[in-house]
Amino acid sequence: MTFTDVKTYFEANGAQLADLSWYDLYRLSPAEVRAVSTSLQTFQRGEGTGGDHLMALATKWSEPDYAAAMQLFIQEEEGHAAMLGQFMDQQGIPRLETHWLHEVFRSLGRPLGLEHMVRVILTAEVVAAVYYRALRQATLSGLLRQICHRILHDEEMHLAFHCLAIQRWGRDRGRLSTWLWQQFYRGLMAGTALVVYAASHRTFRAGGYGLGRFSHTIAAEYARLEQMQQANGAVVQRIVPQPPCAAQAPLFLFSNFVSQSTFK
Ligand SMILES: [Fe+2]
Ligand SMILES: [Fe+2]
After folding, report:
1. Could you tell me the distance, in angstroms and rounded to a whole number, from the CA of residue 129 to the centre of ligand 2?
2. Distance between Cα 138 and ligand 1 center (Å)
3. For the whole model, what pTM was predicted?
4. I need a surface site. Which of 7, 49, 59, 158 has the fewest CB within 10 A?
5. Nearest to residue 2, comparing CAs of 140, 10, 117?
6. How far is the CA of 154 from the centre of ligand 2 (A)?
């Protein structure tokens, strides 16, 4: 995989309209609102993080098509924020202007240059990938489940894109330096995961992710990404499986029946 491949993929992926059931009549139940509204506000704000600083750093790296791919990556993240925001508007869940987690990530990512910023973003993306799986299981809203599925699909290439860049940067680094940075970012991953879990535990629990399952899933996912970052690691994009069948989510199908849509 090259950055040109990533750019081409993002162009094609962005050209496909997210054909979501915006006319779905399903209203979140009070229990669902309690379970998902706070985390939705947090993640919607985080997805919309401005990419100006990231773009400025990316354009300085003279790797063919890296900056172009980064621009498209940022656009996809802004698209995620827009989708979540529109859903929140429909459900009467207020959008946040700012959030302390968002500010923490902004300040963590800035001081050490492009590689560090990408690694901090990757850390957030790993947690987000588990969050959207949990959110998808925590609601019977067909529309929200579609949004989660769409984001999970997009995130797979985001992870591959960042791992490809980290793999390139690691080529010229010595073993000790590589090991030390690896420990640092593992620590950052663990700390980030615990903080986000604490802030959004209602959604994780409602989606079947107790702290044990959550921690195990994060560790497995991070180990997979570390493999991709190795000098000879294969950078691959997984296929996101379709959501559960009718027997597991009858009301979800009912809400889809109302909206006369199919799950993408
Ligand atoms: Fe995203
Ligand atoms: Fe992402």
Report:
1. 8
2. 18
3. 0.85
4. 59
5. 10
6. 7
